[in-house]
Fold each of these.
Amino acid sequence: MFSGGLTTMRWRAGSELRDVPRQRESLHAEVPLDREGAREGKAYGLRVRIGERLSSEIELAYPEVRDRRGSLAWCQALAERIRGLVRDTVAAGAPGQRRSA
């Protein structure tokens, strides 16, 4: 889908410079938290949602979050786990689907 307004210059056969629409891919990942039901008061469950696809789940116990949320190293490790879920979810997309590097 053309995102509108942006163009890039491309060389065509015969050394002709031409404006063509630039195609952008926009990846929006959401991380919904589940803290209801059997988890209520005990843990968070989180998944990555990209469009209609959902990743596998990570469960974080309340005490772990409470005790470690101030630790930069723990936050960085959690961010890397979530990035891994994003990569896995994108890789599991439809065959032939474009992916950004």
Amino acid sequence: MGYDVVHLPDHLYAPAPFPMLTAVAMATEKLRIGTFVLNAGFYKPALLARDAVDLDLLSDGRLDLGLGAGYVQAEFEAAELPFPSAGSRNTPPLRHGPA
């Protein structure tokens, strides 16, 4: 069809990105898959890492994972999660390397 990549959003009103991207990966062989910006604040770091690694393995390394801190306060409230400041939303979920 001429497409090289499919990226999906991560918002509460959209389908969950990991199941949808898994379906796309299983239906294609070369198409890169990924998230625009995954709201890391909605996930426990170890579970997010597990899901990302598994999807990358299932897709033969075609996953492009975009991570962010989330910015839509109403989505945090709807998920019954606190909406901390932008700086604190970036740590610890997006911390790289040793603490």
Amino acid sequence: MHDHSVQITEAQVTTLASQWPSLQILHLACEPVKLTTPSTLTLRALLPFARHCPDLRELGLFVDASSVANLPDSFSSEPSLASRTRSGGEAGDIVQFKTLSKLCMGVSDIRDEGTVALFLSHVCSLGVEIEWGASWEDDIEKWSSETAAADDLIKEISERCTKWEAVGQMLPPLMRLRMKERERCGALEGRIEELKIQNRILIEKGMMGVCEASASVVLGR
């Protein structure tokens, strides 16, 4: 149990993830007792781990998911990211975790569970388990009759957990939708490539026909 969250910037998270490519399990105090200080991290902090840590199986972060204004521009401006969401990519891409099986959000702040679930559906694969809540919550309930502060803390945690539970319920159908989108886009990209090849063959045949016709004219003379 930690009183405070880890004060780390997203730039430092990117450095950490890039230097630990073999990382498999990481929990960064995602259940702090003191909730008065918001996290310095947002949902964007997930992206460096998805990009640089292909073996990561468990990740626990305390983030400020109450604001969705700073999510990647491509996410907020496009309804479908099937063609941009991949298992690897450039620094600006939204990438998907390769082996993640458990994402622990602890008591992270959250307001718009729908938008959060939509974002996570782009970075998580079907089957990823979302965990939330505090392992020490039972202990603090013992103090609730003694201090109003404890009552307020329990209420705040309960509200956050309710929203994270909703995210967990929305994720599976959204992930299935993403899979179908990727399949459709993959089929479409394959068809486009076929058409390009066919078009190239037709152009080459046309050019050969022109050359043969020109040669016939020359010989006829």
Amino acid sequence: MTGRHIGFAFVVLTIAVSSLLGCEKKAPPPPATISGTVDVAPELAKDVTPNYVLFVTVRAADAPPFGPPIAAHRMTDLTFPVQYTVTQKDVFFEGVVLEGKVNVYAKLDKDGNAGPPEPGDLEGEYKGNPVMVGASGVDIVIDKVH
């Protein structure tokens, strides 16, 4: 074999071994985000004042719709419709990863405190729940009054 053939054989062997060992390049995973818009139903829009705080919350798909979410994104100074993105930075618990199937909710909180809804708070949820983390276009209409 000539030097050129040895070099070619080495390249072919390297590719074959990499493939067998799973070293081939794979597509990167989707970003650990969920994004979309939140809007308020026309019949409730008159009730929204500047002091409301928006919380977009994420719960595991198999979790009940109450109790602590795994992540929440807080927003103020709102003009609807508003765009949001929930990321790993919004996760509450160390060691929890924003991944898999989740349910996404939005709450306009009258006093700005996270927690269970209180009288006067407004809520909505993504009608396509559950959704995979990495999804965009997760649009929510706030259409419920507490």
